[in-house]
Specification:
The complex is a heterodimer. Chain A is α/β, with parallel strands linked by helices. Chain A has eleven helices and twelve strands. In chain A, helix 1 runs parallel beside helix 6, helix 3 runs parallel beside helix 4 and helix 7 packs across helix 11. Helix content of chain B is 44%, strand content 9%. Chain B contains eleven helices and seven strands. In chain B, strand 2, helix 6 and strand 3 form a beta-alpha-beta unit. The radius of gyration of chain B is 20 Å and the shape is globular. Classes of the chains: A alpha/beta, B alpha/beta.
């Protein structure tokens, strides 16, 4: 099953299970989203539950917040994560704060799905990975699946969660295949997954960077370097314990994330490692994120801005050298 | 209480009770805000206070037309909406003072009072910020077939926010039971809306096919009568409506906004206060129409005053939340 299919299956199963769940967004019904992730859902659930909206991201996200507060369980589809800018007030000042501001009286059980990731030659306004913005905000949870299995299990957890959850899917991973069991399952938030066991170095990676890390690990193998690859799966809540334990075990850590490196997820995780495993480290934690430039259009330029397996391999080799 | 009413006029008992209830509610908001002003100026209240004084007829007239389970969303100037929808004075004051006994356990404060038990989904300190929430509540009401309506209160300042038009468009497309109530108090903070609003307010809704009406927001009976018709229509499935209530805030933008002659004259303020005070207008009408006699109205005043004073005392004496509560309620 592909990652896109896994997301769709999770949504379909949750919509069958709970009539309060609905999806809204731009071109999601007959069009099935621009990435065709939701193809077919409208046939089963109808246009009321797979609701095409005007191009009004703030508006329909705000409506989802209100609907969530009053008994529904909306899933909002934000076509490109870059359009997060348009929904920030609704997510940050409304959804994230309603619970706290009301002294625990109200809740906002909603999911905001968005895409992230560069390398589609879509330039600066359709390529960013802005998940760190949401992870910065108390009241939100932030999910980044890296496999079809994780995508399905995490999406189900997201829909059943009573809090606003922001769920980022990498556009380039929708066709990624992987095993997904037929039976119902969920994956708890805040539990990292060790994607590859190793002893010499820990590579902590998110979303599509997990594959980059795994490819780098394979290259490292040829040099007798055993890399452990860990995917936190949710950047908030963050499974600090698993990350710190691995760092203590291997004594070297690289953090790879497609968001901007500065003030981003790599910075946060690096500080978690520094605080939790400092005396076990053989070398400073190395961060690898997107370059601090707007994502360029021209293919060779764009390719230069995002982390690659060669880059991770090189950094790992240097750390282990 | 034994008071003799002059029922020589053709006022039904239920009308009389309703008018007196609306008068009492307006008076309660008025006295509540006077207390807030007092607490604030004596430095007993932390933070900011945006007083609703002068606009009482809007909240009271509209909420009188609502069911307890109908939804409202409110604004930074929200005390009046909360009280009119049924909030209790003690928990209101306690919230304003940051006490555990407040509506939000002290975590929201003046600008964020929410009380789901009375359908209040929360005051909102982002101008126009609750337009989505109110529309979403109407969306739920329609989907869950509950017969509820949602009222979104906002000021003329929110007419500058794009969100309002996005959700109004969707509410019209999807025939949602929501009423957008613009309290036009003429000022966006410290700026007269002649500098901020182009064209005509009502026409903006007309563009979405949303019927709109503009009324004198100082006459509570007028507000109620309009709201009653509008609510019935919206509840019956006619789709959203837009109501502009012309009103005036008697105080500044917030309590600390004292020297405000640079944006509005004392003369203008005085004129509204003497000629267009909604509480006084209702009082005069009740007296002229002989709905209630002086003694009865005095008694209402004394009762409300005592309730407000008692509530303040309760809130003043109430404890602050324990500091270890700070991290609670971030997540459900």
């Amino acid at each position: 099953m592909t990652l896109g299919e896994a997301v769709r299956e999770a949504l379909a199963e949750e919509m069958r299970r709970d009539s309060r769940v609905f999806i809204c967004g731009e071109d999601i019904a007959e069009a099935g989203t621009v990435f065709k992730v939701l193809t077919g859902l409208v046939d089963e659930f109808g246009k009321e539950r797979v609701l095409d909206t005007p191009i009004s991201e703030a508006g329909f996200t705000g409506i989802a917040v209100g609907a969530a507060m009053t008994g529904m369980r909306p899933v909002v589809d934000i076509m490109f994560g870059d359009f997060s800018t348009l929904v920030m007030d609704q997510m940050v000042n409304q959804a994230a704060k309603v619970r706290y501001m009301s002294g625990g009286k109200c809740k906002v059980p909603m999911v905001m799905r968005a895409t992230l990731g560069a390398s589609r030659r879509s330039a600066a306004q359709h390529s960013q990975s802005l998940h760190a913005w949401f992870a910065h905000i108390p009241g939100l949870k932030v999910v980044l699946p890296s496999t079809p299995y994780d995508a399905k299990g995490l999406m189900k957890t997201a829909i059943r969660d009573d809090n606003p959850v922001v769920f980022f899917e990498d556009k380039m991973m929708y066709k990624l295949k992987g095993p997904v069991p037929a039976e119902d399952y969920t994956i708890p938030f805040g539990v990292a997954d060790i994607k590859r066991v190793g002893t010499d170095i820990t590579i902590i990676a998110t979303s599509s960077m997990v594959q980059v890390a795994l490819d780098a690990a394979k290259m490292l193998e040829e040099f007798d370097i055993s890399a452990e690859v860990i995917d936190p799966r949710t950047v908030w809540p963050l499974d600090e314990k698993t990350l710190i334990e691995s760092a203590k075990k291997t004594s070297r850590v690289i953090v790879v994330d497609e968001g901007y490196e500065r003030y981003g997820v790599t910075a946060e995780i690096a500080s978690v490692i520094a605080e939790g495993a400092f005396f076990s480290l053989e070398a400073p934690v190395k961060r690898i994120g997107a370059m601090h430039v707007p994502i360029p259009f021209s293919p060779p330029l764009e390719d230069a801005t995002i982390p690659t397996e060669r880059q991770v391999f090189g950094a790992a080799k240097a750390l282990c050298g | 209480m034994t008071t003799v009413l002059d029922r020589s006029k053709a006022h039904s008992e239920s009308d009389v009770q309703q008018w007196l209830r609306m008068y009492r509610q307006m008076l309660m908001i008025r006295l509540f805000e006077e207390q807030v002003n007092d607490l604030y100026t004596r430095a007993l209240m932390p933070g900011l206070a945006h007083l609703y004084t002068g606009q009482e007829a809007v909240a009271v007239g509209i909420c009188e037309a609502l069911r307890l389970d109908d939804y409202i969303t409110s604004t930074h100037r929200g005390h009046g909406h909360c009280l009119a929808k049924g909030a209790q004075l003690g928990a209101m004051f306690a919230e304003l003072l940051g006490k555990e006994a407040g509506y939000c356990k002290g975590k929201g404060g003046s600008m964020h009072i929410a009380d789901p038990d009375t359908g209040n989904l929360g005051a909102n300190a982002i101008v126009g910020g609750s337009a989505g929430i109110a529309t979403g509540a109407a969306f739920s009401a329609k989907r869950l077939n509950t017969g509820q309506v949602a009222v979104c209160f906002f000021g003329d300042g929110a007419m500058g926010q794009g969100l309002l038009y996005e959700v109004m468009n969707m509410a019209a497309l999807w025939t949602l039971p929501v009423i957008y109530v613009c309290e036009n108090n003429l000022y966006n903070e410290y700026t007269h809306n002649s500098e901020t609003l182009a064209g005509d307010m009502l026409t903006r809704a007309v563009g979405f096919g949303v019927p709109g009406e503009r009324i004198d927001g100082q006459e509570v009976r007028k507000v109620y009568a309009t709201a009653k018709t509008m609510v019935a229509r919206v509840r019956a499935g006619a789709g959203p409506a837009f109501l502009v209530c012309d009103t005036y805030r008697f105080h500044g933008h917030h309590v600390g906004d004292i020297n405000r002659e640079y944006y509005r004259s004392k003369q203008e303020e005085q004129q509204w206060k003497t000629e267009r005070d909604p509480v006084k207008l209702m009082l005069d009408w009740l007296t002229t129409e002989k709905v209630a006699n002086r003694a009865q109205l005095d008694q209402i005043q004394n009762e409300v005053k005592a309730e407000v004073e008692k509530a303040v005392q309760f809130a003043m004496a109430a404890p602050y939340p324990a500091v270890d509560r700070v991290a609670q309620d971030v997540y459900a």
